Structure formats: structure tokens, C-alpha cells
């Protein structure tokens, strides 16, 4: 058991560290790496957590398969699966402070905003899919009078879930809840950088009445545990959130092992487009929220900001002032009033600073920020570039930090072309009072989510996913159910 005194809120928080297989805590039988977990606000190691290996994955997959065949899957009525997921939601809510404290300590997310946003998201998503569990219907299809044809939406079986570090609890629940609602069992690998809340969740799953083996959690590295899951011949489906690079490896491993089904939620390079007919103050706030939320570590971060030439100077002045003001609420994640924390790791810190330097060397100008903040941890000042050209790395690649470029545009046609000039297609934000233009833009932009006069929409009953190299398949909403089931057609000769 790991116990931390967070000195704030409820004080002590504890969770067990090990591999969670078949409803029990076990030691790794393979590899047994002890993986350091670092507090990104200080740069100091908090503790080391055991990670598993390929043999552990195999044991977990066997437990998940057994549970699928005996105590879960279609053996259990949907109403019962829903009841358990509702209980899980209740427990996440009850232990919201503890979960938020662990997320804060491990990820550097501010405690207050984690309680206000991430915890309610996890609770809502569990409840939302609990509600679907007894509403998964096939249909009857008229063929001819001598035949009855109908469809069933059956679970895949064992789902491998691999998650990133930028929303560890939220993203784990976004995968576990629909998988369980539809009758699948799960082997989850959290990011080795941020395993705390997934490990805490394990005991809540037991308390909620999730039968042993239905969810197994194996901490570990991507190249060991992650690749063992994605290449396992007995895993039926993978749901992955992370970088496009890793997504490609997972798709390849899935193809070369057993052609398992794959859902990928990958990176982005989302545009924010602001026309000259908007409420400027509101547009500035939304654009800033859209890129600086979670220190820019959001797949949907609106890091390319296109401003109509008629309001460019005014916008830039207001946005720069707003951005400079953010440093006063950036700091220790547990402190009251903190709204932004550090980048997750030294690697990410160096990566983001590398992008800032590449922007400068390619000829863009730093208008605000551009440097580290504070003298410990991995803090970076929110940064605004101007004079960026479409071909520059800062305009093409996902930075995953608090860095944006502001670019002037003249016409709707021009900005549509620029918005689509990337290999990504996750989200876009469009600001205009002209509703016909808003709709034209929404249809012309190649992205899975379009926000009109807002950014970072977190409506969780709406499907989410990427166009182009931002992903395959959809999470959330009713569409998620389709990705966790396969359709069987039954033809009966009458
Ligand atoms: P990452 O791809 O490095 O890691 C994600 C997960 O994959 C981790 O658990 C990691 O251990 C594992 N992994 C690494 N190599 C693997 C391999 N060869 N086989 C199997 N698993 C492997 O991504 P990250 O740095 O943790 O997260 C940041 C990325 O996630 C960003 O690109 C971001 O855009 C993306 N993201 C996307 C969404 C979305 O919904 N589209 C949401 C959040 C984050």
C-alpha cells in the first residue's frame, strides 16, 4: 500500500500498488520493473510502482476470458451490468477528493479544477453507460415470408485498453464503462507515468461488485505491457488513446496477430478560426481556454489560431494580455486558486521547449512567454507565436504544450484551406455570429468535432473521435456502443 499525505483537503490518501488480476493484487511474474513516478510540480520521484510483462498480460487475458464466459458477457442481464456501473459512479463520486488528490499529485493537474471537471466526467460517463447497458438492441429485418432475420449486438470478448497520461482517470473510465455496459471484459494498461488513479480505481471496481477478472489492471511500459496486449492473440479488441505514432504501432500489431478490432483516439492540431463579427472578449477567453486547458496537454488543443484581418491587431493585443495574466494562476497544483500546473514530465518539458526553439529558428516570433516558469518542476509560460508560416513545424506538428500561433486571414476560402492543411483532423473551433457561415465552415472543415462559438466541448453523450490521422472509430455517445459490439445476423427458415 502506498500512502501519501497531501497536506490538503482530506490529508492522507492511500492505494495499493501491484498488478490487479482476477480481482486480486498480485506481484508481477515477468519483468517486475519498478517504475519511478515523478511529481511534475517538483521534478522529484514520489515512489516506484511495479510494472508487469508479457506473461502477466497473458495471465490477465486468461482471467478476463474466463470472466467473459462465466460471470459477465451475456451471462449477466444488461440491467445487472448497469446496476454495477451505477454503483461505480457512486463510489467515484464518494471518493472524488481522494481521486482528485492522486491525479493532482501524479499529473500536476490543479486539485480544484480536477474536482470540478475530471471527477464529474468520470461519474457522468459511468452513469451514462450504465443507462445503456439494458438498451442494447438488435432489430428484425423483413426478408420474405418464409424467413425471419434479426440482428444481435454481441460483445467482442476481451478488450485491451491502453491509456495516456493527460487524463488518466477520465480516459480509463471512458473505456471501461462502455466496454462493461456492452458485456466485454477488460485488460487496462494505464500510462506508466500516471498509474495512481487507475490503481485506486481497482478497489472501487471490487467494491462496486464488478466480478473478479472483468477488469484487470496492469501497470507497465508501452514496449512491454502495451505491445503484449496489442499483439495478444486472445485479445479481441483494442481501444487506445495516445499519440499517432503509437497508434500506428498498435494497428500494425493488431493486424499481424489476430486482426483484432481497433479504436484509436490520437493526436490533433486543431484550428481556432475567429471572424470579424464576434464578441471579441468572449472569443479571446474561448480561444485561450481552447489551447491552455491542462497546460496545452489536450488532444483537441486549438494551437493554430486564425484571426480575420479586420480584428487581428485588437485580438492580438487582448489575447496577449490575457495570456500574460495566466501566469498569476499557474503554480503549485494543490494551492487554492491554481488553475494551471506543470507539463507532465522532463521529456515533455524538453519537447515543448524544443518546439518553441524550432519556431524561433524557422522565423516565427515569440510574442508572449517562450520560457520556463519557476525554478522547480516542469512549468512553461503560456506562449504565443506570431509570423508563423503554414509549413513550420509549430504549425504542422502536435506540440502538446501551452503554445499557439496567431495567423491573420482574409477570406473564408483561404482559412478553410489552411485549417485543413494538416494530417490531423480531431477538432476545430469557429467563431462567428453569421449562422450560415458557421454551418458552411462546420461542413468544410475536416475534423470529427466542430465547436461553434465555444471550444473544448465536454458533452459526453456526444460521439468523439478523429478524421484523418487523428483516429479511427468513436468514443462516447451512442456511437461508442457500436465499437464495443459486433453484429450477428440470424436467419431462421420458418
Ligand atoms: P503515447 O502514445 O506515448 O502513450 C500512450 C500509451 O501507449 C501509454 O500507456 C504508453 O505506455 C502506451 N504505449 C507506448 N508505446 C506502445 C507500444 N509500442 N504498444 C502499445 N502501447 C504503447 O502517448 P502519451 O504521450 O501518453 O499521450 C499523449 C498523446 O495522446 C498525444 O498525442 C495526444 O494527442 C493523445 N491523446 C489523444 C486523445 C484523443 O482522444 N484523441 C486524448 C488524449 C490524448
TrEMBL record:
Active site (record annotation): 265
Family classification: Belongs to the aldehyde dehydrogenase family.
GO molecular function: aldehyde dehydrogenase [NAD(P)+] activity; ATP binding; nucleic acid binding
Lineage summary: Eukaryota, Fungi, Dikarya, Basidiomycota, Agaricomycotina
Protein known as: Uncharacterized protein
Source organism of this protein record: Leucocoprinus leucothites
Keywords assigned by UniProt, alphabetized: ATP-binding, Nucleotide-binding, Oxidoreductase
Amino acid at each position: 500500500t502506498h500512502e501519501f499525505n497531501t497536506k490538503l483537503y482530506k490529508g492522507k490518501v492511500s492505494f495499493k500498488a501491484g498488478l490487479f488480476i482476477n480481482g486480486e493484487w498480485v506481484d508481477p511474474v515477468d519483468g517486475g520493473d519498478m517504475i519511478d513516478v515523478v511529481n511534475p510540480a517538483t521534478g522529484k520521484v514520489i515512489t516506484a510502482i511495479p510494472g508487469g510483462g508479457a506473461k502477466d498480460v497473458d495471465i490477465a487475458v486468461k482471467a478476463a476470458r474466463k470472466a467473459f464466459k462465466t460471470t459477465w458477457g451475456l451471462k449477466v442481464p444488461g440491467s445487472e451490468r448497469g446496476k454495477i456501473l451505477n454503483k461505480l459512479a457512486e463510489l467515484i463520486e464518494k471518493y472524488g477528493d481522494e481521486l482528485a488528490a492522486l491525479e493532482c499529485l501524479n499529473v500536476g493537474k490543479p486539485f480544484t479544477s480536477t474536482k470540478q471537471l475530471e471527477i464529474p466526467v468520470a461519474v457522468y460517463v459511468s452513469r451514462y453507460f450504465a443507462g445503456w447497458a439494458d438498451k442494447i438492441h438488435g432489430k428484425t429485418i423483413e426478408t420474405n415470408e418464409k424467413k425471419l432475420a434479426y440482428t444481435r449486438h454481441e460483445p467482442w470478448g476481451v478488450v485491451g485498453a491502453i491509456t495516456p497520461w493527460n487524463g488518466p482517470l477520465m480516459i480509463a473510465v471512458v473505456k471501461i464503462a462502455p466496454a462493461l455496459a456492452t458485456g466485454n471484459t477488460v485488460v487496462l494498461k494505464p500510462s506508466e507515468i500516471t498509474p495512481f488513479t487507475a490503481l485506486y480505481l481497482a478497489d472501487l471496481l471490487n467494491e462496486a461488485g464488478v466480478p473478479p477478472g472483468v477488469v484487470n489492471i496492469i501497470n507497465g511500459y508501452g514496449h512491454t505491457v502495451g505491445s503484449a496486449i496489442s499483439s495478444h492473440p486472445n485479445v479481441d479488441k483494442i481501444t487506445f488513446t495516445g499519440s499517432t505514432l503509437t497508434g500506428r504501432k498498435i494497428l500494425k500489431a493488431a493486424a499481424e496477430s489476430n486482426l483484432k478490432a481497433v479504436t484509436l483516439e490520437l493526436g490533433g492540431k486543431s484550428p481556432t478560426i475567429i471572424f470579424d463579427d464576434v464578441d471579441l472578449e468572449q472569443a479571446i477567453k474561448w480561444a485561450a481556454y481552447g489551447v491552455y486547458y491542462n497546460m496545452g496537454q489536450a488532444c483537441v488543443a486549438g494551437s493554430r489560431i486564425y484571426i480575420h484581418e479586420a480584428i487581428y491587431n485588437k485580438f492580438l493585443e487582448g489575447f496577449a494580455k490575457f495570456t500574460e495574466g495566466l501566469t498569476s494562476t499557474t503554480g503549485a497544483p494543490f494551492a487554492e486558486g491554481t488553475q494551471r500546473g506543470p507539463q507532465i514530465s522532463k521529456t515533455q518539458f524538453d519537447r515543448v521547449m524544443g518546439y518553441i526553439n524550432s519556431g524561433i529558428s524557422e522565423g516565427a516570433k515569440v510574442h508572449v512567454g517562450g520560457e520556463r516558469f519557476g525554478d522547480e518542476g516542469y512549468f512553461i509560460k503560456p506562449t504565443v507565436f506570431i509570423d508563423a508560416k503554414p509549413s513550420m513545424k509549430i504549425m504542422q506538428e502536435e506540440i502538446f504544450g501551452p503554445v499557439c500561433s496567431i495567423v491573420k486571414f482574409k477570406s473564408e476560402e483561404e482559412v478553410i484551406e489552411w485549417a485543413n492543411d494538416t494530417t490531423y483532423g480531431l477538432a476545430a473551433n469557429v467563431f462567428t455570429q453569421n449562422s450560415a457561415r458557421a454551418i458552411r465552415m462546420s461542413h468544410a472543415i475536416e475534423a470529427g468535432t466542430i465547436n461553434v462559438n465555444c471550444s473544448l466541448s465536454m458533452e459526453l453523450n456526444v460521439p468523439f473521435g478523429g478524421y484523418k490521422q487523428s483516429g479511427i472509430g468513436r468514443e462516447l455517445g451512442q456511437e461508442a456502443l457500436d465499437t464495443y459490439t459486433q453484429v450477428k445476423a440470424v436467419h431462421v427458415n420458418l
